[in-house]
Each structure stands twice: as structure tokens, then as C-alpha cells.
Amino acid sequence: MVNRIKKTAIAQQSGWELRDICVELGGTPVLQHIDLTLEPGSWTSLIGKTGAGKSTLVRLIKGLIPEFTGEYWLAGQPMARDRKGRARVVPEIGFVFQYPEHQIFETTVEKELSFALRMRGDSAKEIEVAIRKMLPVFGLSEELLHQSPLLLSGGQKRRLAIASVLIANPRLLILDEPTAALDPVSRRELLRVLRDWQRGGLNDEPRTVLFISHRMEDVAEYSDRVALLHNGHLLAHETAEKLFLHRSELLTQAGMPLPEAIELLRLTEQLSGRVLNPSSCREADVLKRVKEAWSTRKGTGGLADEYF
């Protein structure tokens, strides 16, 4: 009884709380004893090799895995279940799948953007205001509203699909490789928009993001915390700085690479015999320390003279 009260108190202070979650699919264990908390207003990245259990975990959080063992609390309340005890879909969680343009199904851009709001019961005026506010954020013009989404370019379809999820202002946004197949410029622009939204740029209230990515550079750049899955187990749930700068052996154990900038940092430390300690794991901060280390070698006839 005491443990139950303590767990409830913890869940009430947090956004999404998973405790001792286990999932079997077809008799095979896929997730084993997962403990994970997603704090309100945070950006958590979920990483791991293919088959580690990432997709199963995010589907469970959305309510798309009907049967599992363990506890799942949302804002202090246990997850809603049907009469047979199966999990129900959580409507306040937005889910952007890989290649989100495949989620588009309405006949016009306007209908696609307004679908979630219409299902929620928003008024026509509220829907109009929300659409006018969302269009410039994703670089979509009002002239497109009455066009078929099929006539849009690939990049426009991707932006429309994500905008149609964000327009409902979900409390938690799950992003499953949303930048797949984008060129570097488009990838950075989309991540910037998502980061602005997460920090409250559209609604003056920070939102929570759970981000799946295989690009460690993006994970290091945007994450507050990183959850590392390996063979269905949660190997680590740390701040991005702690995982990438101080516990990188866990990444090696899980078969995951370091971000390129941190690989350069480690090489520079090895060659210089110094511990550089950047202020964060973000690329600009890491490269600043690398440049400082090499700049001290100017005049020695080494690489620093050529590149700095």
C-alpha cells in the first residue's frame, strides 16, 4: 500500500510515467522491465539499433499496444483501458510516423489541416484562426488551401502532414524519424520548426517531444535527455551531455556511434593528451573546444598551422 501511494505521488508530479513495462509479441519478449519518465516540456530522444524495441515503445505510449504488463501513468492517472483491460489510444498524444506524408488522406490541404480540429469539435472560426497561424510556420501559402495534397511537392507534403498533427497542439508529440530522406537543409529547417513549437513558440506553453532518430548529430543537438534501448532493455536514460560526454561506453555496448563532432573531440584529446570538457554535447560547443585545443599548437608546424 505504501509503495502504491509513493508511485502515485511520483506520477502526479510527472507527465508520462512507465514502470516495469514488459511487452511480448507473438510469444517473444520485445520490451523488458522498462522504467521511463517523460517530463513535461522536455525533448527526449529514443535511440537504439534496429530491433531494439523503439517502435514498440512509442506505440505503447500512444496506446497502440493493447496488452502489456506494468504501470503506465498519464499526469497522475492510470492509462485508460476498455472493459477487457486492453489499453486505449491516447488522443492527446500526437504521432508523426516515418514518412508522414503517407498519413495524408483528405481531398484538400484545408481539410487535411482541419481534420483533427473538426474531430475535436472546434468551431469554424477557431479552425480558421489555427490554420492561418500554422501555414507560415511550415512555409505553406494560403493559395494551397483548396488544392489536392496530391499536387504538392514531396517537401510540401511532409510539412503539411506534420502541420496537421501539430495544429491540434498535442501535450506529447512522438516523432518517428520525421527527417528521413530529407536533404541537410530541409532536415535542419524542419527540426528548427519542431524545436520552436516544443519550446512554446506557437502556443506560449512548452510541449513534450519524444524523438526517434538514427542521426546521433541531431540527437546531441536537440535533446534534453536520451533514452538508449538495447535488446528490449532500457540501457540508459541520461541527459544528452552525460551520455555522449561521460558514458559513451554504453553507446558502444548498444552498437551505436558517437556524433561526428564528439568523435573529433575524442581524437583531439588523444592527440593532445588533454581533457577538453566542452560546455555541452552540441556541435558548436564541442567544435569550439576542439579549435581552442588546436589553436594552442600554432607555430609548431603541425595541422593547426594549416587549418587554424
List keywords for this structure.
308 residues; alpha/beta; 4-stranded antiparallel β-sheet; 12 helices; 41% helix; 20% strand; disordered N terminus; ATP-binding; ATP-binding cassette domain-containing protein; nucleotide-binding
Shape: globular
Round the mean pLDDT to the nearest integer and report it.
90
Q: Strand percentage, roughly?
A: 15-25%
Element pattern in H and E: HEEEHEEEHHHEHEHEEHHHHH
Distance between the termini: 64 Å
Please give the order of strands in the largest beta sheet. 6-7-8-3-9-10
> Over the alpha carbons, how many angstroms does the gyration radius reach?
22 Å
Biggest sheet record: 6 strands, mixed
Give the beta-strand count.
Answer: 10
Low-confidence stretches: 1-13
Helix run count = 12
Helix content: 40-55%
- Which structural class best describes the helix and strand composition? alpha/beta
Protein name: ATP-binding cassette domain-containing protein
Organism: Saccharibacillus sacchari
Keywords: ATP-binding, Nucleotide-binding
How would you describe this protein?
The chain is an alpha/beta fold and 308 residues long. The chain has a domain at 259-308. It contains twelve helices and ten strands. The chain has helices spanning 2-12, 54-62, 109-120, 124-137, 154-166, 184-198, 216-222, 240-246, 248-253, 260-272, 283-295, 303-307, and strands at 16-25, 28-38, 43-47, 69-74, 77-78, 93-96, 172-176, 208-212, 225-230, 233-239. The protein has a six-stranded mixed beta sheet, sandwiched between helices. Strands 2-1-4-5 form a four-stranded antiparallel beta sheet, with helices on both faces. Helix 6 links the parallel strand 7 (172-176) and strand 8. Helix 10 runs parallel beside helix 11 (283-295). The longest helix is centred in the middle third of the chain and has 15 residues, at 184-198. The radius of gyration is 22 Å and the shape is globular. Residues 1-13 have low confidence and may be disordered. Keywords: ATP-binding, Nucleotide-binding. This is ATP-binding cassette domain-containing protein.
